Amino acid sequence: MSSDLRALYQEVILDHYKRPRNFGPLEGADHHADGYNPLCGDRVRVHVKLGDDETIEGISFEGSGCAISTASASLMTEAVAGKSAGEALALQNRFHKLVTEREDEADPSGLGKLEALAGVRDYPVRIKCATLAWHALKAALESKENESRRVSTE
Ligand code: ZN
What we know:
Bound molecules: zinc ion
Largest sheet: 4 strands, mixed
Number of strands: 4
Shape: globular
Order of helices and strands: HEEEHHHE
Strand order of the largest sheet: 3-2-1-4
Mean pLDDT: 93
CATH class: Alpha Beta
Structural class: alpha+beta
Number of helices: 4
CATH architecture: Alpha-Beta Complex
Helix content: 40-55%
Low-confidence stretches: none
CATH topology: Sufe protein. Chain: A
Radius of gyration: 15 Å
Distance between the termini: 30 Å
C-alpha cells in the first residue's frame, strides 16, 4: 500500500470518527442489537428499520468506542442503507474477509470507502474493533422484530 493511500485511509477514518454519520436513535426502528468488544471496551448499539421487502429503510448506531470502532460503525451505516438484508449480510461477509485475509488475497473491489479499514489486518486486536458494528448489524438483521440481541466479539 502506498503512503498516499495510507494517508487517505487515515483521513477517512478520522473524519468518520470525529463526525460519525447516522449516529443516534432511530425513529421507527424495529431491529436492534448491542455489540461489545471486551478487548477494547467498544460498545455499539445498532438500530435498523426494515421495510416490508426486507430493505434497510433506516439505520443508525449509538455507543462509544475507539476511533476504529466508531469509524467502522459510521462507514457501515452508509454502506448498507437502502440495501436488502441479504445484500447487507453479503457485504458483512466481504468486509470480514477484507480485514482478515492477507493483502494479496483480499478483493476490495466494490467496497468503496470500507477499504479504508483494510489496514487493520496488520493489527489483530484492532480487527475486533473494526468488525464489531458489523457483528451487531448481522445480529440485528437476524433478530425477530423488537427483540434486542447482544453480541460480543469473544
Ligand atoms: Zn476498539
